[in-house]
Amino acid sequence: MIICQLVLNKNFEITNNNTIKQKDISLFKAIREFTLYEIIHAVLNELTWYGTPEMRDKKGKAILKDIKKIRTVDDLIETDILMRSLRENIKKSHDKKI
Fold first, then answer.
1. What is the rounded distance in angstroms from the CA atom of residue 49 to the CA atom of residue 72?
2. Residue 40 — φ and ψ, nearest 5°?
3. Which residues fall within 8 angstroms of residue 64, CB to CB, at 6 or more apart?
4. Three-state DSSP class for residue 14
């Protein structure tokens, strides 16, 4: 039997990560309450982000293939742009289904 536990962290913090000094500077802190709708939406969104398991596996393999091609910073930027485009296309098709 698989037991899952969902833990919601109500503490919300935005930091400015300064990698040179290795110190996070807190920009904003708050405590956030969640509605039942937001929780259900987030869980279902994560479960169905890439659609069916077959679609997910196909997209995962394509992502790994693209990552293996990265050799330079320019390749990295191009891959990032492609990933953002892929994510937006998936989100648009997902939103149309809802």
1. 29
2. -65, -45
3. none
4. strand
What does the pLDDT read at residue 19?
59
Sequence-separated (6 or more) residues with CB below 8 Å from residue 76: 70
Mean pLDDT, rounded, of the chain? 78
| CA-based torsion, 83, 6, 25, 20: positive or negative | negative
Show the beta-strand stretches assigned E in 1-98: 11-18, 23-31
Mean pLDDT of 60-65: 85
| Contact partners, residue 25, CB within 8 Å, separation at least 6 | 15, 16, 18
Place of tokens 């987030």: 42
Q: What per-residue confidence (pLDDT) applies to 1?
A: 64
Question: Residue 72: helix, strand or coil by DSSP?
Answer: coil
Tokens of 28: 């904003």
- Contact between 41 and 95 under an 8 Å Cβ cutoff? The reply is no
